């Protein structure tokens, strides 16, 4: 079992056990088993489901209250599930080139396997900005949360000492298309470089092309073949503080 949250240092990466133990909780899996696209991701041999650390409210500190409480209602984000890549490779040790502000973001999902896949069921009206469209701040939040988990699985353990806290130092978000709601969005996050306690992370928010079912993936047996489009592309720079001794 994962260690209790009250024994965990505030803002530190999730316990290693929490990020490595598979979950078979029907309450977490069943909502995504009912959607063809997310079910196909659950069946991938390269990934397995884990509990999402930031969906666990830490009452002794109030940590993760936004994602675990405010955005965990029937009208906001009723369901969220994280998939972790089984065989992680250490990220390169050379910082990547930061994308130009005028660069055209890709509309196709990256062919590079992500470290983390976060599947999110978005409801209305709680996450809406424009009609039937997720608020840009909510989209940025989802990307930031998925990135934090990608960093966490690469953050080194410090033996008996707590690992240092991880923070977003810079987040560059490119909104390419509206994210439709209600519906499923998949966040793909990968650490693309690490130098000491510095991490560079890329992420994409991906959604299926629209249909009469409003993108929820309930239209028929060929749902898995529908075109997947990047609605938001992002890159971030993360830092991890020194462990407390």
TrEMBL record:
Family matches, as InterPro entries: HotDog_dom_sf (IPR029069), PTE-AB_protein (IPR052061), Thioestr_dom (IPR006683)
Domain Thioesterase: 133-201
Superkingdom of this protein's organism: Eukaryota
SUPFAM superfamilies: Thioesterase/thiol ester dehydrase-isomerase
Record region (Disordered): 1-25, 91-110
Gene3D superfamilies named in the record: Hotdog Thioesterase (3.10.129.10)
Name of the protein in question: Thioesterase domain-containing protein
């Amino acid at each position: 079992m994962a260690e209790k949250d009250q024994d965990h240092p505030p803002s530190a990466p999730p316990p290693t056990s929490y990020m490595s133990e598979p979950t078979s909780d029907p309450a977490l899996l069943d909502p995504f088993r009912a959607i063809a696209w997310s079910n196909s991701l659950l069946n991938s041999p390269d990934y397995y489901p884990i509990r999402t650390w930031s969906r666990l409210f830490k009452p002794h500190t109030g940590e993760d209250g936004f994602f675990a409480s405010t955005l965990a209602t029937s009208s906001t984000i009723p369901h969220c599930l994280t998939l972790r890549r089984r065989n992680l490779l250490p990220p390169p040790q050379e910082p990547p080139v930061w994308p130009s502000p005028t660069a055209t973001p890709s509309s196709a999902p990256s062919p590079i396997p992500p470290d983390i896949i976060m599947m999110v069921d978005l409801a209305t009206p709680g996450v809406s900005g424009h009609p039937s469209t997720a608020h840009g701040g909510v989209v940025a939040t989802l990307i930031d949360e998925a990135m934090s988990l990608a960093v966490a699985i690469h953050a080194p353990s410090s033996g008996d000492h707590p690992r240092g806290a991880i923070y977003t130092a810079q987040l560059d978000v490119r909104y390419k298309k509206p994210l439709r709601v209600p519906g499923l969005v998949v966040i793909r996050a990968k650490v693309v470089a690490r130098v000491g306690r510095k991490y560079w992370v890329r992420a994409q928010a991906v959604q299926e092309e629209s249909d009469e079912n409003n993108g929820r993936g309930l239209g028929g047996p060929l749902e898995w073949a529908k075109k997947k489009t990047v609605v938001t592309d992002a890159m971030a720079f993360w830092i991890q503080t020194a462990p407390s001794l």
